[in-house]
Request: fold
Amino acid sequence: MRTTFLTMGALALSLLGTGCVATHKYVAKTIAPIEQRVGTDETKNDSKNSDQDKQLATHTGEIADLDKDLSQTKEKLRDTDNKAVQAGEAAKMADQHAGAAQQSADGAKTAADGARTFAEQGLTKLDLSMQAMNKFQVLKSDNILFDFNKDTLTAEGKAQLDDLAQQAKGLDRYVIELQGFTDKSGSTSYNDNLSAARVQVVARYLANHYEIPVRNISMLGSGYARPVADDKTREGRKMNRRVEVRLWVPESQSGKTVATNTESK
Reply:
């Protein structure tokens, strides 16, 4: 627009230089307002351009600030992502450690249960062993017979005691039970004393000839308390004049084998 006005001004000046005075005045009167308006427009345009430049500069600064904020935000996001990854790795390791700890706890529980079971089984076996050691049974039983009104051992009686003593010497724990009897002949007090004397003869033989500890020998004279045969016959009275000998051992040593004399009953 400014170029157009300049062209028109140049043209007017040319006319003024070549035309008449009236024409010159007319042209001057016509162009002056136009130049004034053009100047005003140029001033406005310059001001407007200056404002636009300021706004552009402001926007450029704001964009730069936004870029800076965006860069900082991205950096923070990267840092947050890194921390999140690290937290995830830490959580994963914590899970692994927790799993290992659980496995260790399970293993410890299994070991404890096994130890408890083993201990219980051991106590059960020990209890059974103690019961077997304290519960006795007869390993060998025999009858030592005596002549009428006698308290001396016969050859046959000594042989029976020899066999029993040999068997007892191989045992760790045992008790030899001796119980003496008589036939019905004689008074009760006499028979009680006679049966006790027969028991003492047997005990003395075992202790003196085979070193059987006296503490392992149990003795009782019972007289005519428990006959095993008819005392009205000679053979019956012979069977009643006896010392019953029983070798008691703990069940743990007996092997549940009981030897008995066929004449004992």
